[in-house]
Design a protein that fits this description.
The protein is α+β, with helices and mostly antiparallel strands. The chain has a single domain, classed as Alpha-Beta Complex (Nucleoside Triphosphate Pyrophosphohydrolase), CATH 3.90.79.10. Helix content is about 30%, strand content about 40%. Strands 1, 2, 3, 4, 5, 6, 7 and 8 form an eight-stranded mixed beta sheet that branches. A hairpin with a 2-residue loop joins strand 6 and strand 7. The N and C termini lie far apart (about 45 Å).
């Protein structure tokens, strides 16, 4: 690998997956968080894009692979940039409403949680993921 390759961002995509909350719940919606045992963290479903893959298609593929749910994509959220293992990483996110599906644990994701926005913000491991909760709520309010 040449030094220039180290500066090429790793491309990834994901969704802030949501669904209507059960009747009688004050929040009105729940967010899906995934637990990755490899990192022992809670995050939004996301993953690396395959070569040539459209970012939105990759985001929906990752949601399905990690959560077991199909999703209806909404608007794009802010792109997140950070270093992962010393390399720049760029993750594009969308809002996505869960449609059908069911979770099955895997080596990559062993648990999911459906939480109201505030408990979801508190459970997320990284602050950059918490900012996406606020961005989702802003997008849904303005829709």
């Amino acid at each position: 690998m040449s030094p220039a390759d180290d500066d090429t961002p790793v491309r990834a995509a994901g969704c802030v997956l949501w669904r209507p909350a059960p009747p009688g719940t004050a929040s009105g919606l729940e967010l899906c968080l995934v637990h990755r045992p490899k990192y022992d963290d809670w995050s939004h479903p996301k993953g690396k894009l395959e070569p040539g893959e459209d970012p939105l298609a990759g985001a929906l593929r990752e949601v399905a692979e990690e959560t077991g749910y199909a999703a209806e994509p909404g608007t794009e959220l802010p792109t997140v940039h950070y270093l992962a293992n010393g390399r720049p990483k760029e993750v594009r996110y969308w809002t996505a409403a869960a449609t059908t599906g069911a979770f099955a644990p895997s080596d990559e994701v062993d648990r999911i949680l459906w939480l109201a926005p505030e408990p979801a913000r508190a459970r997320l491991t990284r602050p950059r993921d918490r900012d996406l909760v606020d961005a989702l709520l802003d997008k849904l309010r303005s829709a």
